[in-house]
Write a structure and sequence with these properties.
about 120 residues, mainly alpha, about 80% helix, elongated
Length: about 120
């Protein structure tokens, strides 16, 4: 059963890593859509490089979690908290276009549960 959980973690972590890496890259490049979304939830532009770094660190940690379970658990916790915060930020300003953040939060929680179970 543990091997099935590990394979599931690997699949979810890989997909989440791709999404995080793309988002971090686009954030650093100042992609118009991402910057507009961040402004919509009142994130200062000065925070964008830090948030991109958090996403990149989460991506690296999830992949490292394939070999070192504690890193995968820590990364999944961090990414879960990041996207739960994103959902809360959208709700705070009454922006109900929060599907991307909610889906990524659920994927991160799934990665955490799967890594712990493996």
């Amino acid at each position: 059963m543990e091997i099935i959980m590990f394979i599931a973690y690997a699949a979810v972590a890989t997909l989440l890593t791709l999404a995080l890496a793309a988002s971090a890259t686009l954030t650093l490049r100042g992609n118009d859509q991402i910057v507009a979304n961040m402004r919509k939830v009142e994130v200062p532009d000065s925070w964008l490089p830090r948030l991109a770094a958090l996403k990149a660190a989460g991506a690296v940690g999830l992949l490292a979690g394939l070999w070192a379970a504690p890193l995968g658990v820590a990364a999944a916790i961090g990414v879960s908290l990041y996207f739960i915060g994103a959902v809360i930020s959208h709700l705070r300003v009454k922006d109900f276009d929060l599907a991307p953040a909610a889906v990524l939060a659920l994927m991160a929680v799934a990665a955490l549960a799967l890594r712990v179970a493996a």
